[in-house]
Every structure is written in C-alpha cells, then in structure tokens.
Amino acid sequence: MASEKNGQEAMDTDTTGLDTNLYSRQIYALGESAMMNLRRASILISGLGGVGVEIAKNLILG
C-alpha cells in the first residue's frame, strides 16, 4: 500500500529523482541518461501568438 503525504500518493522515485511510474515508457525507450538530460534542459520559446501560447502552456504543465 502506498503511503500518502499531503493527500497525494508518494512518487516511486529512484536515485536519479525521476518518477519511474510517470516516465517508465520514456525511460525504457530513451534510457535513463537521456531522461536526466531532458530534466536538466532549459528552453526559450519566442514569437508565439494566442494559440501558440496556450499550446506551450499545456506542454509545460502536462
């Protein structure tokens, strides 16, 4: 049984800090080192209109 903290289930994380339940398919396909590189990555999005801003927001939050 998963323990709960602040009303949310505890994440199943390994030593890298990745949520293995959430990212299991990406870790399998890309590998753990690629996922760590993605986690540390920063991006700049520029030149977006009204629809582009909503799409970018949904990508960031989802």
List strands and helices in order, with pairings.
Blueprint: E1 4-5, E2 8-9, H1 24-30, H2 32-40, H3 50-61
Antiparallel strand pairs: 1-2
Describe what you observe in this structure.
This protein has 62 residues and is mostly helical. Helices cover 45% and strands 6% of the residues. It has a two-stranded antiparallel sheet with strand order 1-2. The protein is elongated. The chain starts with a strand and ends with a helix. The mean pLDDT is 80.
Can you count the helices? 3
Give the distance, in angstroms, between the N- and C-terminal Cα atoms: 26 Å
Strand content: 5-15%
- For the biggest β-sheet, the strand order reads 1-2
Name the helicity range: 40-55%
Task: Kindly name the structural category.
Answer: mainly alpha
Mean pLDDT over the full residue set = 80
Global shape: elongated
Q: Low-confidence segments, ≥5 residues, pLDDT <50?
A: none
Largest sheet: 2 strands, antiparallel
Written as H for each helix and E for each strand, in order along the chain, the element string is EEHHH
Number of domains: 1
Number of strands: 2
Cα-atom radius of gyration:
15 Å
Pfam families: ThiF
Domain THIF-type NAD/FAD binding fold: 23-61
Protein name: THIF-type NAD/FAD binding fold domain-containing protein
GO molecular function: ubiquitin-like modifier activating enzyme activity
